[in-house]
């Protein structure tokens, strides 16, 4: 191979590299512009104290649902969980973003009368393309943005699969509702006096909350079984909140 040929090949390689780099930069610039265009309506419409992230979830198209996600992202107060760890609304919103989870209105009734994400089977995980279905009543009957944010927190918590790829349990539902209530206290259920690690207490919370259908679920995931014995007591009123028996004690 002579010097002229070698130089020509090197020149072609250099030009190709420059062209490829320019394409990458151009593509990145286009994405940045798309992200900015998607942000703009929310930056202009929402209160100045709300942070609209630079990148919004690609699979949330409805503006009401996107606003709910943005508001959840802004909830940064730590919520203490059963094992002493903490969680924030922002962490849940970031999980939805990082995992490219869609969020749609349940117009086809996939969840019946509520909101949900559908698993591939009872003991399976969530399919990567499975959206979070939001109850249409929250839109139709104007239950309010805060109720929507609470529901999103509830459903996003489920999607994190906090106990692994296992069937749903009463314990997981307790904590999903608890997190929703901490995100939006005015629309959540009540939890004062209930110990979720006490089986009788857990069942009483379900019946007091009038969500008895959850009693059909298994009580606890295997991963918290060792914590249940720690929560037990020797009281004659074991598993019953103080307010439930104080009048007769």
Count up the helices. 9
Q: Domain count, please report it.
A: 1
Compute the average pLDDT: 84
Computed structural class:
mainly alpha
Binned strand content: under 5%
Shape: globular
Give helix % range. 40-55%
Characterize the main sheet: 2 strands, antiparallel
The ordered string of helix (H) and strand (E) elements is HHEEHEEHHHHHH
How many beta strands in the DSSP annotation? 4
Specify the oligomeric state: single chain
Distance between the termini: 100 Å
Widest beta sheet: strand line-up? 1-2
Notable characteristics:
two-stranded antiparallel ribbon, disordered C terminus, 4 strands, two-stranded parallel sheet, mainly alpha, 249 residues
In short:
The protein contains nine helices and four strands.
Describe, in plain words, how this protein is organized in 3D:
By secondary structure, the chain is mainly alpha-helical. It has one domain (30-245). Helices cover 47% and strands 4% of the residues. It contains nine helices and four strands, in the order ααββαββαααααα. The strands form two sheets. Strands 1-2 form a two-stranded antiparallel sheet. A hairpin with a 5-residue loop joins strand 1 (79-80) and strand 2. Helix 2 packs across helix 5 and helix 3 packs across helix 5. The protein is globular. The N and C termini lie far apart (100 Å). The model is unreliable at 245-249 (pLDDT under 50).
Topology of this structure?
Layout (H helix, E strand, L loop, with lengths): L2 H43 L17 H11 L5 E2 L5 E2 L1 H10 L4 E3 L26 E3 L2 H4 L4 H15 L10 H14 L15 H10 L16 H7 L10 H4 L4
Helix pairs in contact: 2-3, 2-5, 3-5, 5-6
């Amino acid at each position: 191979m002579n010097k002229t040929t070698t130089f020509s090949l090197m020149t072609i390689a250099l030009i190709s590299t420059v062209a490829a780099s320019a394409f990458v930069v151009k593509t990145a610039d286009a994405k940045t512009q798309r992200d900015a265009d998607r942000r703009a309506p929310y930056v202009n419409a929402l209160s100045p104290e709300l942070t609209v992230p630079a990148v919004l979830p690609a699979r949330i198209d409805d503006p009401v649902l996107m606003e709910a996600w943005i508001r959840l992202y802004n909830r940064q107060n730590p919520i203490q969980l059963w094992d002493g760890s903490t969680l924030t609304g922002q962490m849940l919103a970031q999980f939805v973003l990082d995992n490219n989870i869609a969020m749609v209105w349940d117009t086809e009734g996939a969840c019946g009368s509520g909101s949900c994400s559908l698993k591939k089977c009872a003991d399976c995980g969530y399919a990567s393309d499975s959206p979070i279905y939001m109850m249409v009543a929250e839109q139709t009957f104007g239950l309010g943005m805060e109720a929507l944010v609470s529901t999103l927190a509830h459903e996003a918590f489920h999607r994190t699969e906090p106990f692994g790829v296992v069937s749903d349990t009463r314990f997981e539902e307790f904590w999903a509702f608890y997190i929703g209530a901490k995100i939006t206290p005015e629309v959540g259920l009540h939890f004062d006096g209930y110990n979720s690690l006490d089986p009788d207490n857990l069942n009483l919370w379900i019946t007091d909350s009038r969500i008895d259908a959850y009693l059909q679920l298994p009580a606890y995931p295997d991963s918290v079984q060792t914590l249940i014995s720690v929560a037990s007591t020797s009281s004659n009123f074991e598993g019953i909140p103080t307010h439930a028996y104080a009048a007769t004690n």
